[in-house]
Specification:
The complex is a heterodimer of chains A (328) and B (330). Chain A has helices at 59-66, 89-95, 116-126, 133-146, 163-175, 193-210, 221-227, 245-250, 255-263, 269-274; strands spanning 8-23, 28-44, 48-52, 74-79, 82-83, 99-102, 181-185, 213-218, 230-235, 238-244, 315-316, 322-323. Chain A is an alpha/beta fold. In chain A, strand 7 (181-185), helix 6 and strand 8 form a beta-alpha-beta unit. In chain A, helix 3 (116-126) packs across helix 4 (133-146), helix 3 (116-126) runs parallel beside helix 5 and helix 5 (163-175) packs parallel to helix 6 (193-210). In chain B, strands 6-7-8-3-9-10-12-11 form an 8-stranded mixed sheet, with helices on both faces. The A-B interface holds A 54-55, 162, 164, 192-198, 200-201, 204, 219-223, 225-226, 245-246, 249, 259-272, 277, 279-284 and B 42-43, 145, 159, 161-162, 189-195, 198, 216-220, 222-223, 242-243, 246-247, 256-258, 260-265, 268, 271-275, 278-279.
């Protein structure tokens, strides 16, 4: 494949990640959790791919499979046109220079006993990105500046920073080895609203400046709408709708997507009065024994008997809009 | 509509090693019968402390309610002994509260039945079987499926959303007049959030309970609250009906909050406008306006004079700011 012509950085095909449930002393496998089941998508270079869904739908598992923290049960993961899905661990490690992760919890994701400078410097050492101590220091300083922090803070420990500043350190750490892909796993959910805007703006600026590609995972649909070019909605381990951001938000087709969107309140009482609200019943079922057919049918307002029999596949309904629902 | 709760000039302070924290610094608000109000602000602005102070649930020391009145149906709750009989009958009997984390507000080693009936036996003076019967009805009311069976389950057997339903049932169990929901949906997913808020709204309207929603989410108050109070650094900086505040926000902080969150219905390509700087440290605050260091509209007067009192902008709409923002932009 000609890499110059191909602007796809990541392509996931039929990704499956099943976790065994063991029982007894021998941990005999009695069942499986289908955390990710037959997921396919492409992420284009320099773009932001948004992945939305409620907790437990498999968003983070997809991310961890791409990073090869997990060994996928099946499917292919192309990164820079190489299928890395079944690579052994020693081959994957150098690859991680090109793909980094920003975590949700700015408190839990930094080592409290390491100062900020060495947190940022560690990836440089691990991936042997610098040759001299002078180069090391310059790079760490540059990283601090790139996320709007003062390099003189390098001696401070994580507890001396505020939540927003810690998240900046987390982002700088992800930038340290000049990756092409950054997976942002709920990067702003733990922050106060006034901090969220600062971090989102910064992520956008960094993307423009460094040509980064983002896989942006979030449950906040308005944040995803703001930042993403292409959006996939997940429910119980499957993608149920995937299309460009504008199409998804203006013309949602899957009943789950519609319900999700109507659940997000808009900060304007006049609009709220007129909005149609779809309130789903019940909870997300357990991924251990998923309902037969479409896994959304027990909560779906338009489900019929057929829905409990057929597992709907994603199909193109025109204009690059794919949806997995037989009623659409 | 009759006045249910009126809080006047409430001040709660915490003595810490590094200085005095004025967590709630002279706030006044009221709520009528059958009303839903919102209390909005970011973490650390004193929303929760103000609500805990109403029921004197502040740990003393280090906390202390130093001033103010909490008039509930004409009685000043702050005059009561925090461990006394009067206040104990009001807590949960007249005013009940729902907290942010449903999983941690329920006792993990007691079954739902035990937890639900305890308060009813104490407050309503009914016997166990009657309390249990009523508990089942309440669980049905809040939409817990198979209530007869699930009442004997333990909290870990419920999902977060279901736990919060149980909390709502518990909060309503003794026919309170006022329900305070402190960030009731922060820990749950959006579709569950919509379910819970819709449920709470339905129930309070049906039972005629007043509701205070404490939240940082402006969307939620826009959807549910009739009036709202915006808090910053222990004070109310703007208050009014939701319509007025969203149509015509007058405090720079409120304007900042509205501009810094992406909305589902906005045009894209617009950059978010963050509120610059950090929220203030509440220890040893200067007498000037606490929002001053982050305020894009500040004038000389703000730096010289004390934190402005709330002043009337239009009917029922108050703001604590020297600057006439809309005048200036015209």
């Amino acid at each position: 494949m000609n890499r110059l012509l191909d602007d796809t950085l990541v392509e996931v095909r039929n990704l499956k990640m099943y976790f065994p449930i063991g029982k007894g002393i021998l941990r005999r496998k009695v069942a499986e959790v289908k955390a990710v089941d037959d997921v396919s998508f492409k992420i284009r270079r320099g773009r932001t791919f948004g992945l939305v869904g409620e907790s437990g739908c498999g968003k983070t598992t997809v991310a961890r499979c791409i990073l090869r923290v997990y060994h996928p049960t099946g499917g292919e993961i192309f990164f820079n046109s190489q299928d890395i899905a079944q690579w052994p661990a020693n081959k994957v490690q150098p690859l991680r220079r090109n793909m980094q992760l920003i975590f949700q919890d700015p408190y839990g994701s930094l080592n409290p006993r390491q100062n900020a400078g060495s947190i940022l410097g560690e990836p440089l050492k691990v991936h042997k990105m610098v040759n001299s101590s002078r180069e090391y220091e310059e790079r760490v300083e540059e990283l601090f500046r790139s996320v709007g922090l003062d390099p003189s803070m390098a001696d401070r420990y994580p507890h001396e920073f505020s939540g927003g500043q810690r998240q900046r350190i987390g982002i700088a750490r992800a930038l340290a080895c000049r990756p092409s892909l950054i997976i942002c796993d709920e990067p702003v959910s733990a922050l106060d609203v006034s901090m969220q805007a600062q971090i989102i703006n910064m992520l956008e600026e960094l993307q423009e400046k460094l040509g980064l590609t983002y896989l942006f995972i979030a449950h906040d649909l308005s944040v995803v709408r703001h930042i993403s070019d292409w959006v996939a909605v997940m429910y119980l381990g499957r993608i149920i709708e995937i299309t460009g951001w504008k199409e998804l938000y203006e013309n949602p087709l899957h009943p789950y997507t519609k319900a999700l969107l109507s659940a997000v309140p808009i900060a304007d009482p006049l609009i709220e009065e007129k909005r149609e609200r779809i309130i789903l019943e019940g909870d997300v079922p357990s991924p251990i024994n998923q309902p037969p057919g479409c896994s959304f049918h027990p909560r779906c307002p338009i489900a019929t008997r057929e829905c409990s029999e057929v597992v709907p596949q994603l199909r193109n309904v025109g204009g690059d809009h794919e949806v997995a629902c037989i009623k659409v | 509509m009759a006045l249910l709760l009126q809080v006047n000039n409430l001040r709660t302070q915490f003595k810490t090693e590094r200085g005095l924290v004025k967590a709630v610094d002279g706030i006044s608000y009221y709520i009528d019968d059958h009303e839903i109000i919102g209390l909005v602000g970011e973490s650390g602005c004193g929303k929760s402390v103000s609500q805990l102070s109403v029921l004197q649930l502040i740990p003393t020391p280090p906390g202390e309610i130093v001033d103010g009145e909490v008039l509930f149906e004409g009685q000043d709750l702050l005059k009561f002994d925090p461990n006394g009989k009067e206040l104990r009958s009001i807590r949960w009997g007249e005013i009940s509260m729902i907290f942010q984390e449903p999983m941690t507000s329920l006792n993990p080693v007691l079954s739902i039945a035990q937890q639900l009936t305890e308060a009813m036996e104490l407050h309503l003076k009914i016997d166990k079987p009657t309390a249990r019967q009523r508990a089942i009805e309440l669980l049905k009311l809040v939409g817990v499926p198979d209530a007869e069976v699930r009442i004997d389950d333990y909290p870990y057997q419920f999902s977060g959303g279901m736990c919060q339903r149980v909390m709502i049932a518990m909060a309503l169990s003794c026919n309170p007049k006022l329900l305070i929901a402190d960030e009731p949906t922060t820990a749950v997913d959006v579709t569950t959030q919509a379910q819970l808020l819709e449920l709470m709204k339905d129930i309070v309207t049906r039972l005629g309970v007043s509701l205070v929603i404490v939240t940082h989410n402006l969307g939620i108050v826009a959807r549910y609250a009739q009036r709202l109070y915006v808090m910053y650094a222990g004070r109310i900086v703007e208050s009014g009906t939701s319509r007025d505040i969203f149509r015509n926000p007058c405090h720079p902080y409120t304007i900042g909050l509205l501009k810094c969150v992406p909305r589902l219905d906005e045009l894209r390509g617009k950059k978010l406008v963050p509120i610059i700087g950090l929220p203030p440290n509440l220890i040893n605050m200067p007498p000037t306006c606490a929002f001053l260091p982050r305020c894009p509209y500040r004038v000389d007067r703000c730096m010289q004079e004390k934190w402005p009192e709330l002043r009337l902008i239009e009917s029922g709409h108050y703001v604590s700011c020297y600057v006439d923002i809309w005048e200036r932009q015209r």
